[in-house]
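Table S2 (continued). Query chain:
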Amino acid sequence: MKTKEELLAMGHEDLASLTYKIMYEQCLLENKEKENKRLREILDAIGVTYETFKSEFHE
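Corresponding output:
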């Protein structure tokens, strides 16, 4: 993380590059969050299926 002073001292090209890097990292983060949400949904579905199987076939 850059300080305010460091950002003020940066040139236009450096600021543009930093902005692009931050936007790219944000995009990656959002994609990973979506992927993690989907994987949690899959794991929840597997858990429900397993609990149903346990209760129906192991009584």
